[in-house]
Design brief:
Helix content is 45%, strand content 18%. It is built from 14 helices and twelve strands. Helix 1 runs parallel beside helix 3 (77-94), helix 6 crosses helix 12 (338-352) and helix 13 (358-383) crosses helix 14 (387-406). The structure holds nicotinamide-adenine-dinucleotide. Nicotinamide-adenine-dinucleotide is lined by residues 141-144, 186, 211-217, 235-237, 273, 287-289, 309-311, 336, 339.
């Protein structure tokens, strides 16, 4: 089943749980707009190459479309639609005045030069300029895109706009209007809810396994290590590193900087990406790609808690099995919402011409994440539904209210 079909299945399952107008369901089953573009780039060699890119503007009932841009060889429209749908739900779970969108370009950023990445990023904005804007659609980073890329995109937007408009792009470096605390906000938001959950479940000194060692996974590993949790295993696209006594996360970060991977780092055992998911641990944190826990491997999953920092790492079929096994899944739409929360703060600061301190950002992140996390827990307990269904119910109610208030 396609990733978008999986996402829509999650929505359809809500029909039996929450009573909202059939019109809302129907409208949320499809994106409002799909933009597909071909971006011509002169490569360093002088050759002209054309890169295919997408922007899906899924829903804007609550505010301008918001969502990252993914640079990845495997990007396709189906995936971007799913990610844009989840952004819609995520912004509504947080109750922030933003809608859902997502973008992507079919490219492996490791296989082209820095200059070519810059030209591609500026080209993406040029091609879609009239569809973006602080009150229209605000892109940010995702897999394969970085603060530097966001700075190029914001600069290009400002040039075409004829005036600087930092609120048009988030995830920028701090020197060009980025927010303090954006760098590790996805992991930090997830870590806040994890700490609370662990204490509720009386799990002390947890051992953690993390799939993915990029923005989400690496920052999560750092936060866990700082708190004294045992980080048992980590993987990246090349493979996994395991140490039964716990990994030295800082050493792995240094190793990755030098070698581009953690695979083969000293004092680690080599594991493949499947093996790492199936390790016995307290907390499993998928922080890479979609569809990692499926019907094929779900029976072998031994974690007590799964914190979805990645979007869509569990298929709906596997989700049901995990629910029956009593494994607690903190759904992506809440677990990784710290990223969009601080992106929203960045947009807000840019619009107001303000700069908030690290502490202010951190406090605001907590104030946004925790009440919605508690609301999700409470509804799940009172209605005997999974945390995912509970998060969707909160989001759908808010979306329905927005739709009705606008009298669309
Ligand atoms: P990133 O590009 O910084 O890192 C991705 C990591 O995943 C890399 O370490 C890569 O090597 C690894 N990876 C790729 N394929 C893998 C595989 N098959 N097995 C194991 N590891 C693999 O990306 P990111 O920003 O950390 O995003 C990761 C996930 O988190 C994505 O699903 C993304 O949508 C989600 N997310 C990110 C943010 C954010 O702010 N960065 C916010 C919300 C959600």
């Amino acid at each position: 089943m396609s990733i978008f079909q999986n996402a829509i299945k999650q929505l359809e399952e809500m029909k039996a749980i929450i009573n909202i107008s059939p019109e809302i369901y129907k409208l949320l089953e499809v994106p409002q707009r799909i933009l597909q573009v071909n971006i011509p780039i002169k490569m360093d060699s002088g050759e002209l190459r054309i890169f295919e890119g997408y922007r899906v503007q899924y829903n804007n009932w609550q505010g301008p479309y918001k969502g990252g841009i993914r640079y990845f060889e495997g990007v396709n429209l189906d995936e971007v639609k799913a990610l844009a749908f989840w952004m819609t739900i995520k912004c509504a779970v947080l109750g922030i005045p933003m809608g859902g969108g997502k973008g992507g370009v079919i490219v492996d950023p490791k296989k082209i030069s820095k200059n070519e990445i810059e030209n591609l990023s500026r080209g993406y904005i040029k091609t879609l300029f009239s569809d973006f804007g602080p009150q229209k659609d605000v892109p940010g980073p995702d897999m394969g895109t970085t603060p530097e890329i966001m700075a190029w995109m914001a600069d290009e937007y400002g040039k075409l706009n004829g005036a600087s408009a930092p609120a048009a792009v988030t995830g920028k470096p701090v020197e060009v209007g980025g927010s303090l605390g954006r760098g590790n906000s996805t992991a930090k938001g997830g870590f806040m809810v994890l700490e609370n959950l662990l204490s509720k479940m009386d799990i002390n000194n947890p051992c953690v396994v993390i799939q993915g060692f990029g923005n989400a996974g690496m920052n999560m590993a750092k936060l866990c290590a700082e708190k004294g949790y045992k980080v048992l295993a980590i993987s990246d696209s090349k493979g996994g590193a395991f140490n039964s006594d716990g990994l030295n996360v800082n050493e792995l970060i240094d190793f990755k900087k030098l070698n581009g991977t953690i695979y083969g780092a000293p004092r680690t055992e080599l594991l493949n990406n499947q093996e790492i998911l199936e390790l016995a641990c307290d907390v499993l944190v998928p922080s890479a790609l979609e569809n990692q826990i499926t019907e094929e491997n779900v029976e072998r999953i031994k974690a007590k808690i799964i914190l979805e920092l990645a979007n869509g790492p569990i298929t709906p079929e596997a989700d049901k099995v995990l629910e029956n096994k009593g494994i607690v899944v903190v759904p992506d739409v809440l677990a990784n919402a710290g990223g969009v929360a601080v992106s929203y703060f960045e947009w807000d600061q840019n619009l107001k011409g303000e700069r908030w301190s690290d502490e202010e950002v951190s406090n605001k992140l907590r104030d946004l994440m925790m009440p919605n996390f508690f609301k999700m827990l409470e509804l799940s307990r009172d209605s005997h539904i999974s945390l995912r269904k509970s998060a969707f119910a909160i989001a759908l109610k808010r979306l329905e209210e927005a739709y009705n208030s606008r009298n669309i």
